[in-house]
Amino acid sequence: MDTKSKKNNWLSRISPDYQVILGALLLGFIVLALRIYNILWMSMLTFESIITILVVVILLILAGKIYYQVTPGTGKHNSVVPIYLQLLRRYLSVWQTFFINGQMTFKFVTLFVLTAIAGTCIWIMVNNPYSYELVVPYLVLYLFIVIPYLLNKLRQLIEIVRSTREIAQGNIQSAISVQGKGTLPKLAGYINNMKSGYQDALENQMKSERLKTELVSNVSHDLKTPLTSIINYVDLLKKEELPSDKTRSYVEILDRKALRLKALIEDLFEVSKMTSGTVELDIQYVDVATLLTQAIAEVSSNFGDESVAVREKIANPHIYAHLDGNRIWRVFENLIGNAKKYALPGTRIYIYLDESESDVHFKIQNTSSYEIDFAADELFERFKRADESRHTEGSGLGLAIVKSIVELHGGNISIEVNGDQFNVKLDLPKTRL
User: Fold this and answer.
1) What are the tens digits of pLDDT across the range 265-309?
2) Domain 280-429, second-level architecture
3) Is the pLDDT of residue 79 over 70?
4) For every residue of the chain, which 3-state class applies, written as one string?
5) Confidence of residue 77 (pLDDT cuts 50, 70, 90)
Protein backbone atom coordinates (compact mmCIF):
# COMPACT_ATOMS: atom_id res chain seq x y z
CA MET A 1 0.00 0.00 0.00
CA ASP A 2 1.48 3.35 -1.02
CA THR A 3 1.63 6.52 1.09
CA LYS A 4 -1.34 8.15 -0.64
CA SER A 5 -3.62 5.18 0.11
CA LYS A 6 -2.53 5.16 3.76
CA LYS A 7 -3.30 8.86 3.99
CA ASN A 8 -6.78 8.40 2.52
CA ASN A 9 -7.56 5.52 4.91
CA TRP A 10 -6.42 7.63 7.84
CA LEU A 11 -8.73 10.49 6.84
CA SER A 12 -11.69 8.16 6.22
CA ARG A 13 -11.50 6.89 9.80
CA ILE A 14 -12.02 10.40 11.17
CA SER A 15 -15.60 11.62 11.67
CA PRO A 16 -16.75 14.42 9.31
CA ASP A 17 -17.26 16.61 12.39
CA TYR A 18 -13.60 16.32 13.43
CA GLN A 19 -12.48 16.69 9.84
CA VAL A 20 -14.25 20.06 9.70
CA ILE A 21 -12.78 21.05 13.10
CA LEU A 22 -9.26 20.11 11.99
CA GLY A 23 -9.77 21.97 8.71
CA ALA A 24 -10.99 25.09 10.58
CA LEU A 25 -8.00 24.97 12.98
CA LEU A 26 -5.57 24.50 10.09
CA LEU A 27 -7.12 27.40 8.17
CA GLY A 28 -7.02 29.54 11.33
CA PHE A 29 -3.26 28.87 11.81
CA ILE A 30 -2.62 29.69 8.15
CA VAL A 31 -4.53 33.00 8.41
CA LEU A 32 -2.69 33.82 11.66
CA ALA A 33 0.68 33.11 10.02
CA LEU A 34 -0.19 35.29 7.04
CA ARG A 35 -1.19 38.08 9.42
CA ILE A 36 1.91 37.81 11.63
CA TYR A 37 4.47 37.60 8.84
CA ASN A 38 2.55 40.04 6.63
CA ILE A 39 2.92 37.68 3.67
CA LEU A 40 -0.49 38.65 2.30
CA TRP A 41 -1.86 42.07 3.20
CA MET A 42 -4.90 41.66 5.41
CA SER A 43 -6.70 44.28 7.46
CA MET A 44 -7.51 43.69 11.11
CA LEU A 45 -11.26 43.64 10.32
CA THR A 46 -10.82 40.91 7.71
CA PHE A 47 -8.59 38.87 10.02
CA GLU A 48 -11.02 39.11 12.93
CA SER A 49 -13.99 38.23 10.70
CA ILE A 50 -12.31 35.06 9.38
CA ILE A 51 -11.22 33.94 12.85
CA THR A 52 -14.72 34.64 14.24
CA ILE A 53 -16.36 32.52 11.50
CA LEU A 54 -13.98 29.63 12.12
CA VAL A 55 -14.53 29.77 15.88
CA VAL A 56 -18.33 29.84 15.38
CA VAL A 57 -18.13 26.78 13.09
CA ILE A 58 -16.09 24.84 15.68
CA LEU A 59 -18.39 25.84 18.53
CA LEU A 60 -21.52 24.90 16.57
CA ILE A 61 -20.14 21.43 15.81
CA LEU A 62 -19.12 20.84 19.40
CA ALA A 63 -22.45 22.14 20.72
CA GLY A 64 -24.35 19.89 18.31
CA LYS A 65 -22.40 16.79 19.32
CA ILE A 66 -22.90 17.53 23.02
CA TYR A 67 -26.63 18.16 22.48
CA TYR A 68 -27.22 14.84 20.74
CA GLN A 69 -25.14 13.00 23.35
CA VAL A 70 -26.88 14.34 26.46
CA THR A 71 -30.45 14.89 25.20
CA PRO A 72 -32.64 11.76 25.49
CA GLY A 73 -34.93 10.86 22.57
CA THR A 74 -32.85 12.64 19.93
CA GLY A 75 -30.97 9.55 18.82
CA LYS A 76 -27.24 9.12 18.48
CA HIS A 77 -25.68 10.80 15.46
CA ASN A 78 -22.19 9.97 14.28
CA SER A 79 -21.93 13.36 12.66
CA VAL A 80 -23.78 16.67 12.98
CA VAL A 81 -22.23 18.25 9.88
CA PRO A 82 -24.85 16.69 7.51
CA ILE A 83 -27.60 18.03 9.79
CA TYR A 84 -26.18 21.55 9.63
CA LEU A 85 -25.79 21.26 5.86
CA GLN A 86 -29.44 20.20 5.54
CA LEU A 87 -30.53 23.18 7.67
CA LEU A 88 -28.39 25.46 5.50
CA ARG A 89 -30.02 24.09 2.33
CA ARG A 90 -33.46 24.72 3.80
CA TYR A 91 -32.46 28.25 4.73
CA LEU A 92 -31.15 28.95 1.25
CA SER A 93 -34.27 27.43 -0.32
CA VAL A 94 -36.38 29.97 1.57
CA TRP A 95 -34.39 32.80 0.03
CA GLN A 96 -34.43 31.07 -3.35
CA THR A 97 -38.22 31.46 -3.56
CA PHE A 98 -37.81 35.23 -3.49
CA PHE A 99 -35.58 35.16 -6.56
CA ILE A 100 -38.04 33.12 -8.64
CA ASN A 101 -40.11 36.27 -9.16
CA GLY A 102 -37.74 39.20 -9.68
CA GLN A 103 -40.47 41.83 -9.44
CA MET A 104 -41.74 40.47 -6.12
CA THR A 105 -38.19 40.31 -4.75
CA PHE A 106 -37.47 43.90 -5.77
CA LYS A 107 -40.64 45.15 -4.08
CA PHE A 108 -39.91 43.16 -0.92
CA VAL A 109 -36.34 44.46 -0.65
CA THR A 110 -37.45 48.02 -1.40
CA LEU A 111 -40.16 47.95 1.29
CA PHE A 112 -37.69 46.44 3.76
CA VAL A 113 -35.12 49.18 3.10
CA LEU A 114 -37.70 52.00 3.24
CA THR A 115 -39.10 50.64 6.50
CA ALA A 116 -35.60 50.34 7.97
CA ILE A 117 -34.90 53.95 7.02
CA ALA A 118 -38.17 55.03 8.61
CA GLY A 119 -37.23 53.23 11.83
CA THR A 120 -33.81 54.91 11.77
CA CYS A 121 -35.46 58.30 11.32
CA ILE A 122 -37.70 57.72 14.33
CA TRP A 123 -34.67 56.70 16.40
CA ILE A 124 -32.86 59.88 15.32
CA MET A 125 -35.87 62.01 16.25
CA VAL A 126 -36.02 60.46 19.72
CA ASN A 127 -32.31 60.97 20.41
CA ASN A 128 -31.79 64.28 18.63
CA PRO A 129 -34.73 66.71 18.97
CA TYR A 130 -33.05 69.16 16.56
CA SER A 131 -33.18 66.75 13.63
CA TYR A 132 -36.91 67.18 12.87
CA GLU A 133 -36.26 69.19 9.72
CA LEU A 134 -34.20 66.31 8.27
CA VAL A 135 -36.33 63.27 9.10
CA VAL A 136 -39.92 64.59 9.15
CA PRO A 137 -40.23 64.98 5.33
CA TYR A 138 -39.17 61.36 4.83
CA LEU A 139 -41.58 60.11 7.48
CA VAL A 140 -44.42 62.10 5.88
CA LEU A 141 -43.66 60.55 2.50
CA TYR A 142 -43.45 57.12 4.11
CA LEU A 143 -46.79 57.69 5.85
CA PHE A 144 -48.63 58.82 2.68
CA ILE A 145 -47.01 56.49 0.12
CA VAL A 146 -45.64 53.31 1.67
CA ILE A 147 -48.32 52.81 4.35
CA PRO A 148 -51.26 53.11 1.85
CA TYR A 149 -49.44 50.71 -0.49
CA LEU A 150 -49.04 48.16 2.30
CA LEU A 151 -52.67 48.61 3.39
CA ASN A 152 -53.84 48.06 -0.21
CA LYS A 153 -51.84 44.84 -0.43
CA LEU A 154 -53.28 43.75 2.91
CA ARG A 155 -56.79 44.52 1.64
CA GLN A 156 -56.13 42.41 -1.49
CA LEU A 157 -54.84 39.55 0.65
CA ILE A 158 -57.91 39.71 2.92
CA GLU A 159 -60.20 39.72 -0.14
CA ILE A 160 -58.43 36.68 -1.59
CA VAL A 161 -58.72 34.80 1.71
CA ARG A 162 -62.42 35.72 2.07
CA SER A 163 -63.36 34.74 -1.49
CA THR A 164 -61.30 31.55 -1.32
CA ARG A 165 -63.14 30.59 1.87
CA GLU A 166 -66.48 31.08 0.09
CA ILE A 167 -65.32 28.92 -2.82
CA ALA A 168 -64.12 26.24 -0.40
CA GLN A 169 -67.56 26.28 1.27
CA GLY A 170 -69.21 25.40 -2.06
CA ASN A 171 -70.06 28.81 -3.52
CA ILE A 172 -68.23 28.26 -6.80
CA GLN A 173 -70.02 31.24 -8.36
CA SER A 174 -67.99 33.56 -6.13
CA ALA A 175 -65.20 35.38 -7.94
CA ILE A 176 -62.18 37.13 -6.46
CA SER A 177 -62.48 40.79 -7.46
CA VAL A 178 -58.83 41.80 -7.10
CA GLN A 179 -57.75 44.07 -9.94
CA GLY A 180 -54.44 45.59 -10.90
CA LYS A 181 -50.92 44.33 -11.43
CA GLY A 182 -48.63 42.47 -9.12
CA THR A 183 -48.35 39.11 -7.43
CA LEU A 184 -51.63 39.18 -5.48
CA PRO A 185 -53.82 40.09 -8.50
CA LYS A 186 -52.06 37.31 -10.44
CA LEU A 187 -52.81 34.91 -7.59
CA ALA A 188 -56.47 36.00 -7.66
CA GLY A 189 -56.55 35.39 -11.42
CA TYR A 190 -55.05 31.92 -11.02
CA ILE A 191 -57.66 31.01 -8.39
CA ASN A 192 -60.48 32.32 -10.62
CA ASN A 193 -59.16 30.21 -13.49
CA MET A 194 -58.98 27.15 -11.23
CA LYS A 195 -62.56 27.83 -10.13
CA SER A 196 -63.73 28.10 -13.74
CA GLY A 197 -61.96 24.85 -14.61
CA TYR A 198 -63.53 23.11 -11.63
CA GLN A 199 -66.95 24.49 -12.57
CA ASP A 200 -66.56 23.25 -16.15
CA ALA A 201 -65.48 19.83 -14.89
CA LEU A 202 -68.49 19.73 -12.56
CA GLU A 203 -70.87 20.67 -15.36
CA ASN A 204 -69.34 18.03 -17.63
CA GLN A 205 -69.72 15.44 -14.89
CA MET A 206 -73.36 16.40 -14.36
CA LYS A 207 -73.94 16.22 -18.11
CA SER A 208 -72.28 12.81 -18.21
CA GLU A 209 -74.46 11.55 -15.36
CA ARG A 210 -77.57 12.88 -17.13
CA LEU A 211 -76.58 11.17 -20.35
CA LYS A 212 -75.93 7.91 -18.51
CA THR A 213 -79.39 8.10 -16.97
CA GLU A 214 -80.91 8.77 -20.38
CA LEU A 215 -78.88 5.90 -21.82
CA VAL A 216 -80.28 3.43 -19.31
CA SER A 217 -83.82 4.73 -19.83
CA ASN A 218 -83.60 4.77 -23.62
CA VAL A 219 -81.97 1.37 -24.04
CA SER A 220 -84.54 -0.13 -21.70
CA HIS A 221 -87.35 1.43 -23.75
CA ASP A 222 -85.89 0.46 -27.12
CA LEU A 223 -85.26 -3.14 -26.11
CA LYS A 224 -88.55 -3.52 -24.25
CA THR A 225 -90.83 -2.28 -27.06
CA PRO A 226 -90.13 -4.95 -29.72
CA LEU A 227 -89.71 -7.63 -27.07
CA THR A 228 -93.15 -6.84 -25.61
CA SER A 229 -94.71 -7.04 -29.07
CA ILE A 230 -93.07 -10.41 -29.71
CA ILE A 231 -94.29 -11.81 -26.40
CA ASN A 232 -97.84 -10.53 -26.94
CA TYR A 233 -98.21 -11.87 -30.47
CA VAL A 234 -96.69 -15.23 -29.53
CA ASP A 235 -99.22 -15.40 -26.71
CA LEU A 236 -102.05 -14.69 -29.15
CA LEU A 237 -100.84 -17.40 -31.49
CA LYS A 238 -100.78 -19.93 -28.66
CA LYS A 239 -104.18 -19.16 -27.15
CA GLU A 240 -106.68 -19.46 -29.95
CA GLU A 241 -107.34 -20.89 -33.37
CA LEU A 242 -106.72 -18.06 -35.78
CA PRO A 243 -107.57 -17.78 -39.46
CA SER A 244 -104.61 -18.25 -41.75
CA ASP A 245 -104.60 -14.62 -42.90
CA LYS A 246 -104.52 -13.31 -39.30
CA THR A 247 -101.88 -15.88 -38.37
CA ARG A 248 -99.79 -14.79 -41.32
CA SER A 249 -100.19 -11.15 -40.28
CA TYR A 250 -99.07 -11.94 -36.71
CA VAL A 251 -96.08 -13.90 -37.98
CA GLU A 252 -95.04 -10.96 -40.18
CA ILE A 253 -95.23 -8.64 -37.18
CA LEU A 254 -93.20 -11.11 -35.13
CA ASP A 255 -90.62 -11.34 -37.90
CA ARG A 256 -90.36 -7.54 -38.18
CA LYS A 257 -90.07 -7.01 -34.43
CA ALA A 258 -87.55 -9.84 -34.04
CA LEU A 259 -85.39 -8.40 -36.83
CA ARG A 260 -85.57 -4.96 -35.19
CA LEU A 261 -84.54 -6.44 -31.85
CA LYS A 262 -81.70 -8.33 -33.54
CA ALA A 263 -80.48 -5.17 -35.32
CA LEU A 264 -80.68 -3.18 -32.09
CA ILE A 265 -78.61 -5.72 -30.18
CA GLU A 266 -76.07 -5.97 -33.02
CA ASP A 267 -75.71 -2.17 -33.07
CA LEU A 268 -75.25 -2.16 -29.30
CA PHE A 269 -72.48 -4.74 -29.50
CA GLU A 270 -70.92 -2.93 -32.46
CA VAL A 271 -70.67 0.43 -30.71
CA SER A 272 -69.42 -1.24 -27.51
CA LYS A 273 -66.62 -2.96 -29.44
CA MET A 274 -65.61 0.25 -31.17
CA THR A 275 -65.52 2.38 -28.03
CA SER A 276 -63.46 -0.31 -26.28
CA GLY A 277 -60.82 -0.14 -29.03
CA THR A 278 -60.94 -3.86 -29.86
CA VAL A 279 -61.91 -3.35 -33.53
CA GLU A 280 -59.26 -3.86 -36.21
CA LEU A 281 -59.67 -2.04 -39.50
CA ASP A 282 -59.17 -3.74 -42.86
CA ILE A 283 -57.45 -0.87 -44.65
CA GLN A 284 -57.50 -1.02 -48.44
CA TYR A 285 -57.16 1.39 -51.34
CA VAL A 286 -60.85 2.07 -52.07
CA ASP A 287 -62.84 4.36 -54.33
CA VAL A 288 -64.85 6.49 -51.91
CA ALA A 289 -66.95 8.06 -54.69
CA THR A 290 -68.13 4.63 -55.86
CA LEU A 291 -68.90 3.56 -52.27
CA LEU A 292 -71.03 6.66 -51.76
CA THR A 293 -72.93 6.19 -55.04
CA GLN A 294 -73.73 2.57 -54.15
CA ALA A 295 -74.79 3.52 -50.62
CA ILE A 296 -77.18 6.18 -51.96
CA ALA A 297 -78.76 3.67 -54.34
CA GLU A 298 -79.01 0.97 -51.64
CA VAL A 299 -80.61 3.23 -49.03
CA SER A 300 -83.04 4.74 -51.57
CA SER A 301 -84.21 1.28 -52.66
CA ASN A 302 -84.66 0.14 -49.05
CA PHE A 303 -86.77 3.13 -48.07
CA GLY A 304 -88.82 3.22 -51.26
CA ASP A 305 -90.13 6.65 -50.28
CA GLU A 306 -89.88 9.31 -52.97
CA SER A 307 -91.27 12.10 -50.77
CA VAL A 308 -87.67 13.00 -49.88
CA ALA A 309 -85.39 13.44 -52.89
CA VAL A 310 -81.62 12.92 -52.74
CA ARG A 311 -79.28 15.24 -54.63
CA GLU A 312 -75.62 14.33 -54.66
CA LYS A 313 -72.69 16.43 -55.84
CA ILE A 314 -69.47 14.41 -56.18
CA ALA A 315 -66.50 16.53 -57.23
CA ASN A 316 -64.65 13.71 -59.04
CA PRO A 317 -65.99 10.42 -60.38
CA HIS A 318 -63.17 8.59 -58.59
CA ILE A 319 -61.79 9.63 -55.20
CA TYR A 320 -59.35 7.15 -53.71
CA ALA A 321 -58.19 6.74 -50.12
CA HIS A 322 -56.76 4.10 -47.78
CA LEU A 323 -59.84 3.15 -45.74
CA ASP A 324 -61.82 0.19 -44.48
CA GLY A 325 -64.39 -0.02 -47.28
CA ASN A 326 -67.00 -2.01 -45.34
CA ARG A 327 -67.00 0.35 -42.39
CA ILE A 328 -67.04 3.50 -44.54
CA TRP A 329 -70.02 1.94 -46.34
CA ARG A 330 -71.64 1.64 -42.90
CA VAL A 331 -70.94 5.32 -42.26
CA PHE A 332 -72.58 6.42 -45.51
CA GLU A 333 -75.50 4.02 -44.99
CA ASN A 334 -76.19 5.30 -41.47
CA LEU A 335 -75.91 8.97 -42.38
CA ILE A 336 -78.09 8.74 -45.49
CA GLY A 337 -80.58 6.48 -43.70
CA ASN A 338 -80.85 8.93 -40.78
CA ALA A 339 -81.26 11.85 -43.17
CA LYS A 340 -84.16 10.12 -44.98
CA LYS A 341 -85.73 8.92 -41.74
CA TYR A 342 -85.78 12.31 -40.03
CA ALA A 343 -86.14 14.59 -43.09
CA LEU A 344 -89.24 16.72 -43.51
CA PRO A 345 -91.45 15.21 -46.27
CA GLY A 346 -91.30 17.13 -49.54
CA THR A 347 -87.75 18.40 -48.92
CA ARG A 348 -84.42 17.37 -50.41
CA ILE A 349 -81.29 15.79 -49.01
CA TYR A 350 -78.02 17.22 -50.35
CA ILE A 351 -74.88 15.11 -50.32
CA TYR A 352 -71.44 16.50 -51.17
CA LEU A 353 -68.15 14.66 -51.66
CA ASP A 354 -64.87 16.39 -52.38
CA GLU A 355 -61.17 15.87 -51.75
CA SER A 356 -58.07 17.83 -50.88
CA GLU A 357 -54.46 16.78 -51.05
CA SER A 358 -54.61 14.86 -47.77
CA ASP A 359 -58.31 14.34 -46.92
CA VAL A 360 -61.69 13.26 -48.25
CA HIS A 361 -64.50 15.67 -47.34
CA PHE A 362 -68.10 14.50 -47.00
CA LYS A 363 -71.18 16.55 -46.11
CA ILE A 364 -74.87 15.66 -45.89
CA GLN A 365 -77.61 18.23 -45.37
CA ASN A 366 -81.32 17.83 -44.78
CA THR A 367 -84.29 19.71 -43.32
CA SER A 368 -85.27 18.06 -40.05
CA SER A 369 -88.88 17.20 -39.33
CA TYR A 370 -88.20 17.38 -35.58
CA GLU A 371 -87.12 20.37 -33.56
CA ILE A 372 -83.68 19.85 -32.04
CA ASP A 373 -83.83 21.68 -28.69
CA PHE A 374 -80.59 20.30 -27.24
CA ALA A 375 -76.89 20.51 -28.09
CA ALA A 376 -76.24 18.95 -31.50
CA ASP A 377 -73.13 17.15 -30.23
CA GLU A 378 -75.34 15.15 -27.84
CA LEU A 379 -76.61 13.23 -30.90
CA PHE A 380 -73.29 11.40 -30.87
CA GLU A 381 -74.24 9.91 -27.51
CA ARG A 382 -75.66 6.40 -27.56
CA PHE A 383 -79.45 6.13 -27.85
CA LYS A 384 -79.76 9.92 -28.30
CA ARG A 385 -82.23 10.72 -31.07
CA ALA A 386 -83.63 13.83 -32.69
CA ASP A 387 -87.07 12.28 -32.29
CA GLU A 388 -87.39 12.62 -28.51
CA SER A 389 -90.87 11.05 -28.60
CA ARG A 390 -89.22 7.93 -30.13
CA HIS A 391 -91.98 7.39 -32.69
CA THR A 392 -89.46 6.33 -35.30
CA GLU A 393 -87.79 2.94 -35.14
CA GLY A 394 -84.20 4.14 -35.09
CA SER A 395 -81.88 2.56 -32.55
CA GLY A 396 -80.25 5.83 -31.55
CA LEU A 397 -76.87 4.22 -32.18
CA GLY A 398 -76.31 5.29 -35.79
CA LEU A 399 -74.35 8.47 -35.15
CA ALA A 400 -72.45 6.89 -32.25
CA ILE A 401 -71.29 4.11 -34.59
CA VAL A 402 -70.44 6.64 -37.32
CA LYS A 403 -68.36 8.72 -34.90
CA SER A 404 -66.49 5.64 -33.66
CA ILE A 405 -65.66 4.50 -37.20
CA VAL A 406 -64.50 7.96 -38.28
CA GLU A 407 -62.29 8.33 -35.20
CA LEU A 408 -60.82 4.87 -35.73
CA HIS A 409 -59.70 6.09 -39.17
CA GLY A 410 -58.17 9.21 -37.59
CA GLY A 411 -60.85 11.47 -39.08
CA ASN A 412 -63.11 14.19 -37.71
CA ILE A 413 -66.89 14.47 -37.64
CA SER A 414 -69.08 17.39 -36.62
CA ILE A 415 -72.77 18.32 -36.56
CA GLU A 416 -74.15 21.77 -37.33
CA VAL A 417 -77.75 22.84 -36.78
CA ASN A 418 -78.93 26.07 -38.39
CA GLY A 419 -82.62 26.40 -37.70
CA ASP A 420 -84.20 23.36 -39.34
CA GLN A 421 -81.10 22.66 -41.44
CA PHE A 422 -79.19 19.66 -40.15
CA ASN A 423 -75.62 19.24 -41.45
CA VAL A 424 -73.14 16.44 -40.80
CA LYS A 425 -69.55 16.97 -41.94
CA LEU A 426 -66.72 14.50 -41.81
CA ASP A 427 -63.11 14.49 -42.96
CA LEU A 428 -61.28 11.23 -43.63
CA PRO A 429 -57.50 11.06 -44.17
CA LYS A 430 -56.44 9.56 -47.47
CA THR A 431 -53.54 7.71 -45.87
CA ARG A 432 -53.62 5.78 -42.61
CA LEU A 433 -52.00 7.64 -39.70
Assistant:
1) 776 776 666 666 666 788 899 999 999 998 888 887 766 666 788
2) 2-Layer Sandwich (3.30)
3) yes
4) CCHHHHHHHHHHCCCHHHHHHHHHHHHHHHHHHHHHCCCCCCCHHHHHHHHHHHHHHHHHHHHHHHHHHHCCCCCCCCCCHHHHHHHHHHHHHHHHHHHHCHHHHHHHHHHHHHHHHHHHHHHHHHHCHHHHHHHHHHHHHHHHHHHHHHHHHHHHHHHHHHHHHHHHCCCCCCCCCCCCCCHHHHHHHHHHHHHHHHHHHHHHHHHHHHHHHHHHHHHHHHHHHHHHHHHHHHHHHHHCCCCHHHHHHHHHHHHHHHHHHHHHHHHHHHHHHHHHCCCCCCCEEEEHHHHHHHHHHHHHHHHCCCCCEEEEEECCCCCEEEECHHHHHHHHHHHHHHHHHHECCCCEEEEEEEECCCEEEEEEEEEECCCCCCCHHHHHCCCCCCCCCCCCCCCCCHHHHHHHHHHHCCCEEEEEEECCEEEEEEEEECCCC
5) low
